Amino acid sequence: YLVDKGNYRHFMEKEIYEQPEVVSHTLAHYLDFANGVAKDFETPFDFGKIDRLAISACGTAYLAGLVGKYWFERHARLPVDIDIASEFRYREMPLSKQSGALFISQSGETADTLASLRYCRQEGLPIGAIVNVRESTIARESDGIFPTLAGPEIGVASTKAFTCQLSVLASLAVKAAAARGEVDAEGEKLLVRQLSEAPKLANQTLKLAGQIEKLARDLSHYKHVLYLGRDTNYPLAMEGALKLKEISYIHAEGYAAGELKHGPIALIDEQMPVIVIAPHDRIFEKTVSNMQEVAARGGKIILITDAKGAKHSTIDTLDTIIVPDVPEIISPIVYSLPIQMLAYYTAVFMGTDVDQPRNLAKSVTVE
Ligand code: G6P
């Protein structure tokens, strides 16, 4: 592909800004917005009949899969096992013949993910893959593919491929929920309508760039950062930390907020900012108590929330980033943007090679 940066400083910046458009294309591939249903696309296994789904992937694609687990289990009551591909391939776990196997890979060439796929093939499982490159090895060796319509991704740190993977997973969760009788026609319509709002809300969220750029200047002075979140914001916290360490080289950890007291709280002081991803949802108050624990130990909090969350948190923060109000199912898609922007602008301030960070490869085709 011949792709240029246009007016952007880096491919990563361009790819962040492309997200409303590519998320919209991807969702429209799977969902019929006019009729409020999942489309009748081909699947390698029947979502209504399988008893489990085994997901395996690496890096950012793995974290997309982890968000997918919450969606499949919550909306479709479909149990999901999820593994990092390098573990999956050697773990020798029992796999039920009634399950489906799902692999997620932007490039479709990651060695560990491909090896996991071949393991499942040997075990006789039907195989599906969410891929961005349709002519890839993983696509070829699958029984069916679910393409992400992100277009070529050049920046080593994945951005638009991630939100497109989330878009596919959410669409598949809706499809599975309908196939398993876990939503009625009205319920399906509501989920599809909520998903259809993702591009518009992502677009509004991009307007936070100015505030996030200022915050990034402060963040670039720290050596360690802790990211916290609950529910689907837990994988997002890990993704925020991954993005930050990949391109700014700041040491960052992503933790489930409820695990704070089981370890990371020992590290809290004024030298380690804590970034909390917490929309005002049913477990918001739980996360507020985690923030109180941080504040009581002199920790500096950066809160990423919505207007209601900002109003109800009553905690002093270093900064509060207020994202538009979003329906719960699209929250991981929309909240991906501020964490990507925060990593991006921090890296720009630090002067690192944003698109080609040291020691990393866009696709890891050797073990
Ligand atoms: C590398 C890239 C990551 C990516 C991971 C998985 O580590 O730097 O951005 O998430 O591989 O790649 P895949 O192509 O399988 O999604």
From TrEMBL:
The keyword Translocase does not apply. Residues 37-182, 215-357 form the SIS domain. Its EC number is 2.6.1.16. It catalyses: D-fructose 6-phosphate + L-glutamine = D-glucosamine 6-phosphate + L-glutamate. GO terms for molecular function: glutamine-fructose-6-phosphate transaminase (isomerizing) activity. The active site is at residue 362. It is found in: Cytoplasm. Homodimer. Catalyzes the first step in hexosamine metabolism, converting fructose-6P into glucosamine-6P using glutamine as a nitrogen source. This is Glutamine--fructose-6-phosphate aminotransferase [isomerizing].
